[in-house]
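STRUCTURE:
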């Protein structure tokens, strides 16, 4: 096993008022490699913007502006994340969902 040592003790990350989390199996189960650049960008943004229940309500124009996406790129990425069961969207509100079993996403 690799021994880990803090590289910069003066800059150890601490959890302050809010915290975003991406589960480790997002990488180890292959979700990372199966998403396009725009899907990853939107997914990570929604994770960062979400509250503790995974909810956020940024408008498409604000998301496109912040992420430098065209409307078509945003819609394609959003729909792909919905199809892959990573997010839910009701037209106004987003919910980042718990990760589904990998075999359901990569059929």
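SEQUENCE:
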């Amino acid at each position: 096993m690799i021994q880990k040592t803090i590289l910069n003790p003066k800059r150890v990350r601490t959890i302050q008022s809010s915290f975003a989390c991406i589960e480790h199996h997002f990488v180890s189960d292959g979700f990372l490699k199966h998403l396009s650049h725009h899907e990853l960008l939107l997914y990570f943004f929604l994770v960062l913007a979400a509250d503790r229940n995974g909810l956020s309500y940024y408008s498409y124009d604000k998301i496109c502006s912040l992420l430098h996406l065209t409307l078509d790129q945003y819609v394609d990425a959003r729909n792909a994340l919905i199809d892959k069961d990573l997010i839910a969207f009701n037209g106004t509100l987003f919910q980042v969902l718990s990760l589904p079993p990998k075999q359901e996403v990569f059929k």
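REMARK: The CA atoms of residues 84 and 105 lie 5 Å apart.
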